[in-house]
Amino acid sequence: MQIFFAEEWPTKLWMAGFIGAGVVTAFDILLPTFLTLDSLWMYGLFALSLVIIGAISYLVSIIAGGIMLPPIFNLRAKLNGAPFAVGDQVEILKQPRRGTLTSIYEVWTDRFEARLDLGPSAKEDYSDVYSLTAFRKATNT
What we know:
The protein is α+β, with helices and mostly antiparallel strands. The protein has helices at 2-6, 9-35, 40-79, 120-125, and strands spanning 89-92, 101-108, 113-116, 129-131, 135-137.
């Protein structure tokens, strides 16, 4: 479950579900109307309608997801060991660095992210910035 959240699958599924539901509903409602007219123009208008409804569904998914998903991600971060602090030892859960043990050198709570010590090149190009659900506190075993 930790890797499912680390790879941001809930967000991907949320958005795909909204877009898919919007397009399928539009297809179901609009298809009978557009099939009564036999012209290439009407098929083009039908396809354009599906694209527009898909775009609207995408925007609605962003707004609704901004309300519904943060509490779920906050819970997952707490289960991963949040709140995190500078110096905490963590294990990265997200590819391509899954399994890497490192430490936190900066926490951006307002952005729900942290910077992990992955070397000077990662620091320079900000590839060391991870969501708080993309790593967990390392356990001493």
